[in-house]
Amino acid sequence: MIRQGHIGRSQAILLVWYVLATKVFLNVPSSLLSEAFSAAWLVTLGGGVVAFLGLVPAVTLMRRFEDMPLARVLDEAGGLVLGKIASLGASVTLLAILGVALREFGESVTISTLSRTPMNIIMVTFVALVGYSAYSGIESSGRLTTFLTPFLLILFGLILFSDISDLNLRQIFPLLGPGPGRLAVSMLTRSSIYAEVMVMLILYPYLRERRDALAVATWALALGVAVLTTTEVIISSAFGIEGSERLLFPFLQLARLSTLGRFVTRLDPLFVFLSFFAAALSFSTVLWAAVTHLAEALRLKDHRPLIAPISAVVVAGGLLPRCLLNVIDISFGVIYMWAWIPLVLLPGLFLPLAVLRGKKGTATAGPGGGRR
Predict the structure, then answer these.
(1) CA 179 to each of CA 32, 42, 45, 54: distance values in angstroms, whole numbers, following the listed order
(2) Residue 17: which domain range?
(3) Which of 81, 120, 271, 347 is least enclosed by beta carbons within 10 angstroms?
(4) Cα dist. 173→1, 48, 167, 182, 187 in Å?
(5) Is 107 inside any structural domain?
(6) How many folded domains does the chain comprise?
(7) What is the DSSP letter of 26?
(8) Cα–chain center distance at 210
(9) Range with lowest mean pLDDT among 34-43, 120-129, 174-183, 238-247
(10) Is the whole-model pTM more than 0.85?
């Protein structure tokens, strides 16, 4: 295991929660409404249940190998070849999610504030900040998250609930939206919006109290589901189903409509502050997890030399789509359609393999590893 220090229970919950919840600032809410209509909020709930069902055996698999990092666990449970393929797949999935999220965030910055700034400048600048945070290590991110969370929660609440009296909650009916069959399929495939919960498996050996891993993951997932579900309900109630489907970055539009009495008539500057810091914490955690996991799969002693080249690849990949609509098509039509497979496949395949092969134990001394 690469030595990077350790984080506490509350810090781990907050880090994973940010990774899951910052999708509210992107186009995920409007994309879900275009697919499930009035039942979009049920998709976020059902998808969270599916993600939890994949999470329980995944944490069980990690506990079977005690203090081993995920890459070593996959190698031990499934063999060297299958383990390396799975590790590469997990890292690529996280980096693909990061690339499209980074591009969407850059587009939201362009729309909200920096309309004349080239997209490549925005993305390079932001990924440099994110890369520095990942370079500093998970302990630094954990401390920063603990410090910023109270302020960000206040801003989030101000935007989300400022005009709650004007909401039309009848927009969430009919409850089953497109019908029970399509709704069930959407719950399965759109559990992909929680695929980054696999970050918890990479964080596992860095927890001070590993016996709390399932509780940490459950709390983070539950909080992420709560934020996404509440946002879906409020956005659909504020703009209507048809109106919400057409919106780009609906949370930004909600901030533009929100007021606080007669004196504060614009809250969109709060959106800029809130989304910037929340996205920075989220993206740096995902980048750290992907790079650390890849370094451990390659048995490297340090993950930091990989940060710059992988960040460059992420920026280049994010800039490939020609426009925002292409990004949304890739994000919602491909990544958030199939990313649930690694989440289900890792524990669903490797836990039985570990049991059948009788594999379990602790990390042993070696390149990139060692017993604490």
Answers:
(1) 15, 12, 16, 25
(2) 9-356
(3) 81
(4) 50, 21, 14, 16, 18
(5) yes
(6) 1
(7) T
(8) 21
(9) 238-247
(10) yes
